[in-house]
Each structure stands twice: as structure tokens, then as C-alpha cells.
Amino acid sequence: MRRLCLGLLLACAPSCQGKGASGDGPKTGNATPGVEFNGKTNKGADFSLAGYRDKVVLVNIWATWCGPCVKELPELQKLHHAHGSDFAVVGINIDKPRLHPKMEAMIAQHGIDYPVVVDPDGQSLQTFGVQGYPTSVLIDRNGVVRWRREGIIQPTDAEADTAIKAALAAG
Fold this sequence. Notes:
Number of strands: 9
Strand order of the largest sheet: 3-2-6-5-4-8-9
Largest sheet: 7 strands, mixed
Strand content: 15-25%
Radius of gyration: 15 Å
Order of helices and strands: HEEEEHEHEHEEEH
Number of helices: 5
Distance between the termini: 55 Å
């Protein structure tokens, strides 16, 4: 019975896909309605996505057990600082509490200084329509989703860079 439950859980849960720029992941073009997300950061601070309305935000949903997610962390850190004060990266970690020490170690190892929201109950999965990990969602200053990627953002990712620059230029 335990194996059956575990098998069903794995079959139904979003997977760690690590799709590249040429995979099924990128979505551009049509803007989708604004999203709201609230929670607590790994440092215990209250977090509200609405508090970032004056910025373009790249939300990245990730897990410590997802190899592509971990591989992507250095690139996200670079992006966080590459586009000035009008842009921010926000991580949402979906690990269960028992893995939070591992999450903290990865944050320290990669020098992550952008906010990381802990979401052990997986609320972000529905909010952002997560199909697999990592998932990144670009949100403009009005809270509207302008681009998404289901899969890894590679270094010098032209599509991600173009989407970010377009959202920043839109004002």
C-alpha cells in the first residue's frame, strides 16, 4: 500500500524537468492577469509580491532536490544584479521543513541575496501554474505575467534577457 501511495504521489506531482531554452517551457506574447503571493522568507520576514509593484520581478520556483534548479541558482543571482534597482529576483522554495537546512546551505554556498520565500505547502504551484521545476515567471510593474519558463534559465539566455529588457522598457 505504501508503494502504491508513493507511486501515485510521484506520478501526480510536478517533476524536476530542467528543460532548456529550446524545450516546451518558454511562453511569451500574451499577458496574463496579475498574480498575488504572500508568505514568509527563509529569514522569517513577511513577504508580499504586491510589495514589488514598482519593479519587474522574476519569480523562480525551485527545490533543493532538483538538480536543474540548483544549477540555475548562480545565473539567477547574476540576473538579480544585472538589471538595476527596477528589477528583482524572488525565489520560492517548495522544500518540506526537514530540507530547510539544505536550502539554507545552498543559499549560502551560492551567495544568494535575493528574497527566498519558503512554501512547504506548495501554494505557489497553483498560483503560478507550475508543471515542473524549475519554473520562472516574469511579472511586470503592474503585476501582470509577461513571460514564463518551465525549465532552466541558462547563462546568457537570450530569450530570458529579451523578456526582462522588454518588461523594464515598458515602464
